Amino acid sequence: MLKKAMIAHQLKRWEKEFNRHEVYVKHFIPGRIRLFSPLWKDNESLIKEVRQLIEREHTVMAVKETIETGTILIEFNSQREVQRDELVRWMSILAQKHAPFITP
User: Fold this and answer.
1) What is the pTM of this model?
2) Cα–Cα distance between 103 and 101 in angstroms, integer?
3) Which domain does 42 fall in, by range?
4) Minimal CA–CA distance to 46: which of 54, 104, 14, 59?
5) Which of these, 45, 81, 50, lies nearest to 63 by C-alpha position?
6) Do the beta carbons of residue 65 and residue 47 sit within 8 Å?
7) Which of 5, 23, 71, 80 has its CA at 20 to 30 Å from residue 49's CA atom?
8) For residue 99, what is the DSSP state?
9) Do the beta carbons of residue 87 and residue 14 sit within 8 Å?
10) How far is residue 58 from each of residues 5, 70, 83, 96, measured CA to CA in Å?
11) What pLDDT band is residue 25 in, cutting at 50, 70 and 90?
12) Which pLDDT tens digit goes with each residue over 87-97?
């Protein structure tokens, strides 16, 4: 039960960070997260660039994008909790790539 509560807490924390960059958590289980952004839908160059940058992260095992729906599936090492600094790196990648498209 405690593990489920910790996962729920982690998901809420991730959602808040992602939403700031117009990225939304569609699905999450330990080791997999599916993200959606309206900025990625039918924007092949942006979604592929984000995928390539996320793939470079050492905890990431695989990244698959679906351009038609604007989603990215990230598979990562679930043997340990993704640390805050890793999440911050993922967010900085999205912030950098999304900045030109987001109006304050």
Assistant:
1) 0.76
2) 7
3) 2-101
4) 54
5) 50
6) yes
7) 80
8) G
9) yes
10) 26, 24, 12, 19
11) confident
12) 677 777 887 87
Closest alpha carbon to 60 in 74, 80, 46, 81: 74
Give the pair of three-digit tokens for residue 26.
């569609």
> Whole-angstrom Cα distance, residue 15 to residue 66?
20
| Count of structural domains within the chain | 1
Distance CA 92, CA 86 (A): 10
The helix or strand, by DSSP H or E, that contains position 45, with its residue range, turns out to be helix 44-55
CATH number at residue 32: 3.30.70.100
> In the structure encoding, which two tokens stand for residue 36, read together?
């959606």
The strand ranges marked E within the chain are 24-29, 32-36, 60-66, 71-76
